[in-house]
Amino acid sequence: xxxxxxxxxxxxxxxxxxxxxxxxxxxxxxxxxxxxxxxxxxxxxxxxxxxxxxxxxxxxxxxxxxxxxxxxxxxxxxxxxxxxxxxxxxxxxxxxxxxxxxxxxxxxxxxxxxxxxxxxxxxxxxxxxxxxxxxxxxxxxxxxxxxxxxxxxxxxxxxxxxxxxxxxxxxxxxxxxxxxxxxxxxxxxxxxxxxxxxxxxxxxxxxxxxxxxxxxxxxxxxxxxxxxxxxxxxxxxxxxxxxxxxxxxxxxxxxxxxxxxxxxxxxxxxxxxxxxxxxxxxxxxxxxxxxxxxxxxxxxxxxxxxxxxxxxxxxxxxxxxxxxxxxxxxxxxxxxxxxxxxxxxxxxxxxxxxxxxxxxxxxxxxxxxxxxxxxxxxxxxxxxxxxxxxxxxxxxxxxxxxxxxxxxxxxxxxxx
Amino acid sequence: xxxxxxxxxxxxxxxxxxxxxxxxxxxxxxxxxxxxxxxxxxxxxxxxxxxxxxxxxxxxxxxxx
Lengths: 416, 65
Description:
Chain A: It comes from Streptomyces diacarni. Chain A: InterPro entries: FAD-oxidoreductase/Apoptosis, FAD/NAD-bd_sf, FAD/NAD-binding_dom, FAD/NAD-linked_Rdtase_dimer_sf, Reductase_C. The complex is a heterodimer of chains A (416) and B (65). Chain A has helices at 23-34, 60-63, 68-71, 76-82, 141-150, 164-175, 195-207, 307-321, 386-396; strands spanning 6-7, 10-11, 15-19, 40-45, 85-88, 92-96, 101-104, 109-111, 114-117, 121-123, 135-136, 156-160, 179-183, 211-213, 218-223, 233-237, 242-245, 247-250, 254-256, 272-274, 279-281, 284-286, 291-295, 300-302, 333-338, 341-347, 354-361, 366-373, 376-383. Chain A has 416 residues and is an alpha/beta fold. Chain A has 3 domains: 6-122 and 255-321, FAD/NAD(P)-binding domain, CATH 3.50.50.60; 135-252, FAD/NAD(P)-binding domain (3-Layer(bba) Sandwich), CATH 3.50.50; 340-396, no CATH class. Chain B has a two-stranded antiparallel sheet with strand order 1-4. A two-stranded antiparallel ribbon of chain B has the order 2-3. The longest helix of chain B is centred in the C-terminal third of the chain and has 10 residues, at 45-54. Chain B is globular and about 30 Å long. The interface between A and B is medium-sized, with 26 and 20 residues.
């Protein structure tokens, strides 16, 4: 079947519709134009803002060091130059893959020749928590606006969840003078980085003034004694403790935003299942946090919620849409700013991986480390060592001794 | 060619160093990107533009074209 420009043997003018205007969706659009695509392009974004960057929401934006304009990935002028039709503040409600149309929540139905799904993820919440003023999540600019107004000196913030978002926000709130308690059911914070790095991060967070309660789950959030709506809350823990709070941030992970794809027939087992270049079905690609791409070096599908991954995938999708090919960088990369400490990871830390310190410089509070699975390097980590970690990546993550440097064995499952 | 790095935006990912190692380096203490030379030769333009495109913080800007 011709991949583009034709249908039933007849040439049709092309119309690429991208649903989602975060780093992934915008990235596809920009890369398409960069590669010379000059036909119709439409962007659909649920939020009523120019496309913006999310990582600073828990850091520089929350403290006020950056304003919304500094987060824009494409301001109004850049968007104009993109030459795309932009539907802002609109959500897709469904798609008919046979008819090649996507429906929006204003009743509009957009015909497409190619659809790119980049709708991202939505924060998970605790049951019954949303009814309380002061119980918040952090995903959008509005969320960050609302949270920053609550983080006044002396105010009590309880963070539920010890992942990247929870810990980063805890650090930021400490720097703003808040009383911070972080609660996580895992044995350490940042459990994905293993026991050693997680413990260290938790110790540093506690030393900076936070109360870090690991191995503890939240059972419920209740209204405190203050007047309703005052934001006086009580967080009930599974050990019987009741934590008073002015604000409760729930940061327990996210779910792919695929509710609107229910009748499309797409494989939605974990986000949208795609092959190694982001194809989900004829005429449909997906990328970014919402997409689980087949990863040849690992022989399985991976859905990664990393900022860098979204941009990488976007460029691969754009190339594929135009009949070209760009290889995804199969060494994932992410960073997290833990207050003054920057953690950078290249590679994929599998749950069974074992961590070993590689080089340490205690004087500068700096080290690098290596994660191994069955003796093979699967990831490298830098603690305050962003420069050293790149060298380590070059040395250790490209050779045949690494999990990522080895092609999949013959007969490995085919993408699908 | 003219290149500007927004140090406030830079997250120290080092992707620019991977793409254009003769143009970019990182500060030791925080990984923030720095230019290796005051003047960047015009023949580095394709690599610099690629670096600007892959930068996860959109912190690199180049003069037109």
